[in-house]
## 1
Amino acid sequence: MTVEQPQAPNTGPKPRALRPRDAATLIIVDSSSGEPRVLLGRRRPDMVFMPGRYVFPGGRVDPSDRQVAVEEDLRPSDLGKLLVAMKGTRSVVRARALALAAVRETFEEAGLLIGTPLGAGALPKATNWQAFFATGYRPALGRLTFFARAITPPGRPRRFDSRFFCVDAEAIVHRATIADGELSDLEWHSIAQARSLELPNITRVVLEDLGERIAAGALHAGDFPVPFYHRRNGSFRRDLIGAGGDLE
């Protein structure tokens, strides 16, 4: 008879928690039919992070996002809020890159372009933006609003420090066909319809914030605080990034 030996307790050092990577998401709101709807897509089931879940278009920031110039910038109040509690080296360039990543990822995943005509002159050399520039447009950030922030809790296979931006569907200037992207079943859903989808918890929470802002008629109000979801000392927190650039 084989006797199973008890395992010795693990007294070695605990594995270091993954450091959250900068990421950005774009919530596109279409109010043309009366009831506001948002664009959501389903992540492929073979993906490591949130497989099969419905999410807004978005992804991690690429180094090339810091190299792209914009003619229509974020509002100063939004840039200021993005700098609040920013991990690592704080800079306006890095803050702007977050919004640029949201625009780029939305184009790559959904084929929807938020931009302005490129104009004459040499094309920018940012590698991951070549398909975007090939449409004849450059990104425009003037109609984006910094809406929410969330850091993936420790222990997940991927961790992101995600900033959520919102924009009206009227800002879409070009639509392209996307094949074999990370998202499928891209469709417009009312907030009520979206509640029945298989959503990540944070997406569900942000949707409720969105509904409240829309109901208040203040979706793009610059003086509204930005909810910031994260864990501190093992507890889930909802702090607010104030209009004055303070963490409340």
## 2
Amino acid sequence: MLKPLSLIVAALLAVPAYAADSYTIDTRHTFPVFEVNHLGFSTQRGRFNKSSGKITLDTKAKKGSVDLTIDTTSLDMGLDKWDEHMKAEDFFNVEFYPTMHFVSNKLVFDGDKVVAAEGDFTLLGVTKPLKLTVSNFHCAPHPMNKKQACGADITATLKRSEFGMTKYVPAVSDEVKISVPVEAFKD
């Protein structure tokens, strides 16, 4: 016969754990954008046309994860020559570093809303901690295809020199602002 403590432990282990929902990032609606001050004259922006990843979300347990890969070869500055310049060794060096990567196992919640993600960002082979701010977080059935979807606007600021991208600093700002509109469908 089992002792009372053994019964309690057995009962707790028998309760199924709440599983996090898994989402795949919608590549048609997730386009990372960056902006940087250019010689003190203007704010210049570029975007990446290809990204992919997974998100897990357990709103009851207030946990989740993000795994986002950005294809640096898809950099789009709006002009072919500028794209070539930014893809070269002085900046994104896409020949040797064809991706950037953010991974987080710590989502920060305010009630049922995700408001931040803390993790590691890898650029040019250098990995540093990065905290993303999440706003406009929303999950609901998608009005077009009726599948469960989540979306948000993600922002962060980093210093490119910390990743080895030092060309023209400080004339071209060291501080880079990142914005990512992201949408993801439940698997």
